[in-house]
Specification:
ANK repeat; 60% helix; repeat; Ankyrin_rpt-contain_sf; mainly alpha
Length: 460
């Protein structure tokens, strides 16, 4: 029977509930006794209270147990006490094992992996191809065969299945980077090759070099699934250089999947054009300092040393580096044989369109053709108003008086870039072109720069 306005016992603060629990167990203790307060604060008493509050079957349940109702009390020593008091670790699909692996609770993991079914449960044990239940075991005990009864217990099945849910415990430990936990799970029989070596992929993707080394030493295959672990490790940049080198030394192929590792590293390049870290990267570095830069320059050089093709997919690595304003990466690729003329001067066209002057100058020094595709680099630079790139291309021999130069002049006028227009006209572009005049007359700055007459008013 509940009374309106009267709080329930479960609504009281946790410390008071523990004191009530202790008082109920030992009524002779005084409320003001120092012993009472010391006992009520002890972890042993609190663990027993949790067992009474949640029950043996649910105290380690992530949804209705200690983790959800009293998360501040979810500690390694508390869990050890709960297991000693008989808490069931199999509840909620063995959640407590995955939680212990994620938080490097080695004592809890060791306890869970060594727990066997108790003697007083009707579990079946295997013995010489036959089965013996609890009653047979007790009969042997009554007959004085104590060693036989102990053997039954030692051969009884483990409470926790390390292979549950496709080695979920091992995958959790690998993603968190806990090498000690990984060794314990592997010693208990966990399969490091599960799901095409996914534990290795997870450890490499998070940049856990020690965990990667532990998995490789336990039999993980670095070349599995077309070197998927290497392809994910490259995404973290030079901060993950040691992990990438370790995978390459253990058989990962730098040229796997059409040199996708090199393509990814070249696309991210020097890191200057890389946006802010994504949520996935921020989550991986939540427990450790994030790298100051997401540069991939050293990774590009390392991959090329291990056989990656600098001209993969018609020179895409160099084109990616040039499109991302990565002159250092582009220089490394060129020094390793990348063709600056690949795909009709695509690197120069990409850099010119985006206005990356340092990259354009590098390509021109290496012999890139400024006249490619009918002065297309000049057109791309003029359309974007990149004055420095326009000057560099004109200095390299781009012809402003050609048809390509005329189109570049019209594009600059249409975009409203008076300085670019003046530069092109100074190098021979035809300012009397009708299409250019129609665009230039709509811009006051261009008219003033070239001393053009404004258009007549449209009204009379």
């Amino acid at each position: 029977m509940s009374f309106p306005g009267k709080p329930a016992l479960a609504d009281l603060p946790f410390d008071i509930l523990c004191r009530v629990f202790v008082w109920a167990q030992w009524p002779t203790l005084s409320l003001v006794s120092r012993v009472f307060h010391q006992v009520s604060r002890s972890m042993g008493v609190r663990a027993r209270y949790f067992m009474v509050e949640f029950g043996r079957k649910h105290v380690l349940d992530s949804c209705v147990g200690l983790a959800s109702r009293r998360p501040q009390a979810m500690r390694q020593d508390t869990v050890l006490l709960l297991l000693a008091l008989g808490a069931d670790p199999r509840v909620d699909n063995q959640w407590i094992l995955r939680h212990a692996c994620a938080h490097a609770w080695t004592l809890v993991v060791h306890r869970l992996l060594s727990m066997r079914a108790p003697l007083d449960q009707g579990l079946v044990a295997q013995d010489n191809g036959g089965t013996h239940n609890t009653q047979q075991m007790l009969d042997s005990w009554r007959g004085g065969a104590r060693e036989s009864a102990i053997g039954f217990h030692q051969n009884s099945p483990l409470l926790v299945d390390v292979h549950r849910d496709s080695e979920a415990a091992l995958r959790t430990a690998a993603e968190a980077g806990h090498s000690d936990v990984i060794r314990m799970l592997v010693a208990a029989g966990a399969d490091v090759a599960v799901l095409d070596n996914e534990p290795l992929v997870l450890a490499a993707a998070a940049g856990h070099t020690h965990a990667v080394r532990t998995l490789l030493g336990s039999g993980a295959d670095a070349s599995a699934d077309q070197s998927r672990a290497l392809r994910t490790a490259v995404l973290l940049g030079d901060a993950n250089l040691h992990c990438v080198r370790l995978l390459l030394e253990h058989g990962a192929e730098a040229s796997a999947m059409n040199d996708s590792c090199l393509l990814a590293a070249a696309y991210r390049g020097d890191g200057s054009a890389v946006p802010a870290a994504t949520r996935s990267v921020q989550r991986r570095y939540a427990s450790r300092p994030a790298p100051a830069s997401f540069s991939h320059v050293q990774l590009v050089e390392l991959l090329l040393e291990h056989g990656a093709n600098a001209n993969a997919l018609s020179g895409k690595p160099l084109a990616f580096a040039c499109s991302r304003n990565s002159p250092r990466t582009a220089a490394i690729l060129i020094s390793r044989g990348a063709d600056v003329h690949a795909n009709r001067e695509e690197p120069l066209r990409q850099a010119s369109e985006r206005g990356f002057l340092a990259v354009v100058e590098l390509l021109l020094q290496q012999g890139a053709n400024a006249h490619a595709m009918g002065e297309m680099p000049l057109l791309n630079a003029a359309r974007g108003g990149h004055l420095g790139v326009v000057r560099a291309l004109l200095a390299a021999g781009a012809d402003a008086a050609s048809e390509g130069g005329r189109r570049a002049l019209v594009a600059a006028a249409r975009g409203g870039w008076p300085l670019v227009v003046s530069e092109l006209v100074a190098h021979g572009a035809d300012s009397s072109d009708p299409e250019f005049a129609a665009c230039a007359l709509n811009s006051r700055e261009i008219r003033e720069k070239l001393a053009l007459q404004p258009p007549p008013p449209s009204w009379k």
